[in-house]
Design a protein that fits this description.
It is built from two helices and ten strands. By secondary structure, it is mainly β. It has one domain.
Amino acid sequence: MGTEWAVTTHSGPVIYASGFNVRFMIKAAGIYTEILSLAELGENPLYEYWVIKQSGGYGKGCRFIITKSEDRSTKRAIIYQSKQFFDAFKLPNNEVLNFDTDNLENLYKLAPWYYPECYKYSDLKNYKIGVNKSGEYIRIKLR
């Protein structure tokens, strides 16, 4: 990919211990892109919450995405996307998919303190998530 498209990956895809979080890191033309699958929000069909974070080039930005598929091994369809963070999505049958904003590990991966422009309508931009000496994620209030 690098010779034909001038694209490099910083690492191969990572699948976290939970079994469904996936991470890709890509660099092209001075723009760093991180693609994360953060949560499975439903079953049969399967709904997933993804985020794409970019920095470099002309600035920073995010895209938050809900996908739908029959299961983990089938093609995903994007059913909703936004440049602003959302923690709930209402399906046509009125079922609500909720993203757990108390999951500090996922908030650490989102890094809202680094992308505050993507969290205009969320309190998450006012906190940083760190890791203490015991390896536990902690929430730190920003000034």
